[in-house]
Amino acid sequence: MALSSPPFYLPGNLNTSDASPDWLNKGDNAWQLTAATMVGLQSVPGLVILYGSIVKKKWAVNSAFMALYAFAAVLICWVGWGYQMSFGTSKLAFFIGKPNAALDQGALLVQDSPYFFPTSTMVFFQFVFAAITLILIAGALLGRMNFLAWMLFVPLWLTFSYTVGAYSVWNGAGWLFKAGVIDFCGGYVIHLSSGVAGFTAAYWVGPRTARDRDRFPPNNIILMLAGAGLLWMGWTGFNGGGPYAANTDASMAVMNTHICAATSLLVWMALDMIFFGKASIIGAVNGIITGLVCITPAAGVVQGWAAIVMGIFSGSIPWYTMMVLHKKISLLRDIDDTMAVFHTHAIAGSLGGILTGLFAEPKLNSLFYGNTSHVGFLYGLKDSRVHDGLKQLGLQIGGILFIIVLNVIMTSLICLLIRLIVPLRMTEEELEIGDDAVHGEEAYAIWSDGEKLENSRHNSNYDLEEFPAATKKAGNDMKMV
């Protein structure tokens, strides 16, 4: 039985029927907003916690703050001009849309055709993807990038790099989209982009201090695991929101996501045990991430068995590039990529894109794209569509090359521009001291860390002599530990 409308009116003289037009599918809208929120939680607090706990103690605040700032700054840039440059209908060039604001209710409350929810939902959903991309780039730069330089980098990179990739691959008018490149939910636009951009920016910023590179232990492994858990579970919304509907393809994407991540974790853990004799929780986290990244371009267009195969590859190939090749190739060894985003995102994202070209199943592609023109190479062999399969595989590789070239060039130009305004790198004093020198705050202020209250900018007039005897004794006892 239908319930009557409640006897009140919404702001702007919109009654409840105006707020629920005939074209609105409440299930799709609710799911899309939920999925967007889950992706947002991957960043805040997920990556904020992960970054703040996986770094050395003196960099906990700065690392978390880089992620927090990026999340806020991207939102303002996104509604100001970024969304229309990525997903707008007005074209500036064949690879990018015309900048314009996404703030007017006349545009935000109408249907985002062909989907059954308002444009405001799409703006929010795509914002959290843009935000996490910048935060992933930050992972390569932790422990030495000048915070002012980072404040400039975020809006510039979003404007001149992210929007180009998003428009080209995801916008219906984008040249790579029209060519037929498959990127279900961001293996190219988000992960390959962030991995390449982070590695490139790390080159221009320079390495951490020798002491930090030689020894950089996590300050809290349990909190690191909590952040990683938020990242893993949040991926339900990441890939589950890809079809823009609460439909069967979304369910398939969610299942494949978790199957691949679990397989990748187990493979990475097994390789650690075979070659190093111990299972590492940090290694397990890397395995989770590479599995999630690898399945992202394929989540809703491959079968479950393919997700397991992709998990095997994502748990082994990035493991090999990180644990073996990294030490042998001078370029990888010399560039200081703090969180190894090149391996976990660029390598895993490229791997996922190529495997999508092999395993993309025509019927599942028809659920997502509305046609069966996309076909993986293995299905091309099976269905006597070898040419179509080879074409899809070639398109996937071509898309990878485009994203790599785009991000190397644009990231380099942005870093060189910023370097003309402010230093890309912290001062030697800031590199030595860490959070207290950069932000005037420390994540862990305990006596055994040698906290000197008289030198803190917030407590310059205090001394242990001013504290009660019991407090002084506790401090002295901890210094002896």
The amount of beta strand, in percent, is under 5%
Rg, rounded, reads 24 Å
Terminal Cα span: 70 Å
CATH superfamily of the largest domain: Ammonium transporter AmtB like domains
Assign the CATH architecture of the largest domain: Orthogonal Bundle
From the 3D structure, determine the CATH topology of the largest domain: Ammonium transporter fold
Q: What spatial form do the alpha-carbon principal axes imply?
A: globular
Number of domains: 2
**Number of E-type strands:** 2
Order of strands across the main sheet: 1-2
Mean pLDDT: 90
**Largest β-sheet summary:** 2 strands, antiparallel
Poorly predicted ranges: 1-15, 452-456, 458-481
Structural category: mainly alpha
| Assembly of the depicted chains | single chain
Q: Which CATH C-level class of the largest domain is it?
A: Mainly Alpha
Helical content stands at 55-70%
Succession of helices and strands: HHHEEHHHHHHHHHHHHHHHHHH
Please count the helical segments: 21
Summarize the structure.
This protein has 481 residues and is an all-alpha fold. 67% of the residues lie in helices and 1% in strands.
Defining traits:
mainly alpha, 2 domains, disordered C terminus
Explain how this protein is built.
Mean pLDDT is 90; it is low at 1-15, 452-456 and 458-481. Strand 1 (91-93) and strand 2 (96-97) form a beta hairpin. The radius of gyration is 24 Å and the shape is globular. It is built from 21 helices and two strands. The protein has a two-stranded antiparallel ribbon. The chain is 67% helix and 1% strand. It has 481 residues and is mainly alpha-helical. Helix 3 runs parallel beside helix 6.
